[in-house]
Amino acid sequence: MTSSSPAAAIATATQPQRRSRRGRFEPYLLIAPTVLLVLGLMVVPIVIVIGYSLFDNVVTNQNPQFVGVANYVAILGNPAFWNAVGNTLIFTVISVVIHLLIGIGFALMLNSKLVHGLPRTIFRAIYILPWIFTASVVAVLWRLLLDPSGVINYVLTTIGVLHQAVPWLATPATALISVTVINIWSGYPFFMISLLAGLQGVPSDLYEAARVDGAGLVRQFFSVTLPALRPIVYSMALLDLLWTTQQFTLIWATTGGGPINHTEVVSTFTYKLAFNSYQFSMASTSAVVILVASLFVAIFYVRQQKKASQS
């Protein structure tokens, strides 16, 4: 019978320590690629843009001068900025509200027992079509439809609703509502699919208990369906609020912010400052203001998600 040497005993004792040390660093190694991507694609650009907003004019000026918050005072005192903010609020609020209403309506219809089998499959395919198209395709499609010689004007003049064709996207009175309708059409499937998934998760026992208590369809909707869907509705509404306020491609490809800035939103306003007027510092300032406003919505969204997970 031989006893282990001291060196072997020490090596055996240090192996668990090495494993524990390696196990301690493994999670950091796994998240390192994501952290580097976030730093490189988000944090660093945001810091650079904030830095640009504190100088008189960068990129075009070889020796930019530090001006502090002067750019913020200028942008907040610019009537064109507040016009863009007002258009953004109108565009966003109407889009989010109608997205929600249409989404709930179609989700209820597709979840109804009256629609089943092949008709339900066909309706699902038709209703989800707008979500398949990219924003540029949607813009081209609706520009053709809303053209003075397009299908919509032809139908409305044929049935007598209009006496002559209307350039919907080129008329100040109709341009903003037209791009809002386009955004509603392209975005409602997101609500519909999410709410349909939520409806299918509501226990049928709740509806049976409500019917036993004498509740009709309307009462069941407000007492059973809506409370069950409330967390989903909050999450979808806040996400849609963030996405819609940052909408750029659809508006740029349909109206470019015109006519006469009637569809100018904060995203197109910022883009024009940078690449039309070459005022990169002012564009950075506008972007920082938008970022701060979006952060408030994002923080509220995270808080709602935390509450929902804890309940």
From TrEMBL:
Record's bilayer topology term: Multi-pass membrane protein
First-listed, main subcellular location of the protein, grouped into a coarse class: membrane
Key words of the record: Cell membrane, Membrane, Transmembrane, Transmembrane helix, Transport
Transmembrane segment boundaries: 28-55, 89-110, 122-145, 176-197, 280-302
Domain ABC transmembrane type-1: 85-301
Localization per record: Cell membrane
UniProt xrefs under InterPro entries: MetI-like, MetI-like_sf
Pfam families attached to this UniProt entry: BPD_transp_1
Entry's family note: Belongs to the binding-protein-dependent transport system permease family.
Annotated protein name in UniProt: Sugar ABC transporter permease
The organism of origin for this protein: Gryllotalpicola koreensis
